[in-house]
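User: I want to check something. If I give you two sequences, will you return the structure for each one separately, not as a complex?

Assistant: Yes, each is folded on its own. Here is the first sequence with its structure:
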Amino acid sequence: MVRQGTSGKNGSKPKGTPGRKPGRPPLKAVYRRRRLFVGLVLLLVASVALGGFAAVSGAMRSSEQASSTERNGSDASKPDAEPSASATPSTPATPTCDQGLVTVSASTDKAAYAADETPLLSLKVTNGGKVACEVNLGTSQMEYTVTSGSDRIFSSVDCQAESSDLVKTIAPGQSETANFPWQRNRSVPGCGAVSAKPGAGGAYYMFVARLGTKSSTKAVFQLL
C-alpha cells in the first residue's frame, strides 16, 4: 500500500525556509519588528531622560530664583548704606544781643542850679547793636553817685530801702532813661545820719551813672 503524504514529485519536500514551521512570518519581517521595537524603546528612554533633565533644570532655575528672592529680601531688610554727603546750605545762626554794645551815659537837665532848684540826674541806656537786647533796668542794678573832687557826696544805694528788677527789651539804636531827683543832700554807706550839706556858691560836682557792671563817664554840673 502506498502512503499518501505531502511529498512532491519524486518524494521531495516542498520548498521553503529550512527549519521554519509552516504558517510563521518570514525572518526579515521579524527582524524589522524587533528593530522597530528597540527603536521605540530607545526613543521612549531618550524622551524620559530629556523630560527628567528638563524637570531638573526647571527645579534648579526655581531654586536659584527663590535664593535670589531671599537674598534680595534680606538685602532690603538691611539698613541702607550711609548716604553720601550732599552739600546742604547751612542755616545761619539766629543773631543774639551783644551786651558789649549796650552803653550807659549820665546827664543832668541843667548845667547849673540855683539854690532853690533840685538837680535831675538821668541814667540813659542805649542799645548800639543791630538786634534787640534785654536789659535789667531795675533799681537793683542802678546807682547814682555824686562826687566833688575826691569827696564822695552822695550815692543812691546808701539809703535804698528796697530794690527790684525790671527787664526791658531795647530795640537796636533805641534808649531807655531813668531819672533821679537829687535833693542836694549828703549820704554815707549804711544810711547813717549826716548833718553837713554840699557847698554852693558855684561849686562843681560830678555825676556818674552805673547799671550793673557798666558805668558812664562823668557829667559835670554846678550848684550856685
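And separately, the second sequence with its own structure:
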Amino acid sequence: MSPIAFGSLERLRAGFPALERGAYLSICDKAILHNQVRAAVETFLDRLASGTCSRVEHEVLVNASRARFAALVSATPGEVAISRNVSDGINAVIWALDWQEGDNAVISLDLEHPNNVYPWLRLRKRGVELRNIPSVDGRLDYEAMTGALDGRTRMLSCASVSFAPGYRADLERLGRAARARDVLFLVDGVQSAGILRHDFDAERVDAFATSTSKGLLGLYGYGFLYLAERWIDRLEPAYLSRPAIALDNDDASATGSYDYQLQPDARRFEVGSYNVAGAYAADAALALLDLAGAERVETHALAVAATLREELAAAGLAEVSTATGPTEASHLVTAGPLDAGGHGFSETPWVEALSAQLTEAQVVHTVRRGQLRFATHFYNSDADTRLVLDVLRSWRGAA
C-alpha cells in the first residue's frame, strides 16, 4: 500500500465525478474537473451573464491564481506571467532573446513534445545552430548535453518529465551547468506542475512554461510562465499589448505616454485579454492542491505509480519503464517498446489489444510513442492498480 493513508485524501477525491466511472490514470493527457473547480467556472459564467462584475473585478482571480502558482513553486508573483499554454510560454521566451548568427541552443528533440520542437527548428532560419543531443534508452544524456554548452550557447531546454517514456529530468544538474555559463535554462513543465514539487531557485530553472490543463487541474487555454528575476530585464518580449505596459491605472483602454515603459516584472510578457474563466478555474484548483499539500501530493502520486510499475513488471508485462534512481522516477508509468507506433496507436499487437481491454473496463489511459501510458495524481489509489492488474489477468486468460 502507499505510505500515505489514502483516507486522508478521500474527501478531496470524492469531488471528482469522473472517478465514479472507473480508474482515471491519464493526468498526463488532460485533467478532470473537481466539483469546486467547476463551481468556480459557473460563478464566472453567472457573473458574466448577469453583468455583475467588471473586468477589474474578474481579474482579481487572475492575480490570485498567479500568487497561488508562485507559492507552489517557491517563486514570487512578479516572476510569473499569465499565458495561454505551454506553446505560448516557450515561444515567448525563445523569441525574447536577441539571437545572433552563430549562437546555439542545446536540446534533446527526440524526448520533447512537438510543441517544444518546432520553435527550436525555426531558429535555424536566423543562423542559430541547434545542438540536438540524442537520448539514450529514453533518457537525457546529461554528460553530452552539458558538454555541448560553450561560449555561444544561449539556451538549454528540456521537459521536466518526458511525455513518454516518462522519466523525470535532473533539473538541478542541467540548471547548474547552464548557470555556470550564463545560459538560460528553459523547462517545459506541463507534465510535472501540480504533481511533483518544484523549487525553481534550488533547481536553477530560469524559465518554466506550463498549462493548467493537466496536473494543475484547470482548463485548457490558461497557463503560467515563470521567468527568474535575473533574466526579466535581459529579455525583450516579441509581442506587446496593454498588460505589458506600466501605467498608474487599471484602465485597459488607456494608452498613456508614447514613451512607454514595460512592466517591471514578468507581466511584460502578458498579451491581450486574460482567459478569465481559466483564472477562476486555476484559482480554485490551486486552492485544492494547497489543501492537499505539495509534499503529500508528490509522495502519494509517486507511491501509487511505483506500486503500479512494480506490479506490471512482476506480472511479466514487457518493457515497463523503470527508473535508475529515485530522482528519475515520476508519476508516469509506461510499458511496451518505445517508438513502435505513435500518438494513440501502437505497432505492437499486445499493446493495442491490452489498451482496448483497459478502455472497455473504464481504465482511462493513453498510448504515446507506441507505449501504454498511465499517470497518477493525488486522487489515485492502489485500487486503481488492482483494477489494471485485473484487466491484465482477464486479457491474458482470454488470449
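Because they were folded independently, the notes below concern the second chain alone. The first helix runs from residue 7 to 13. The longest strand covers residues 153-159.
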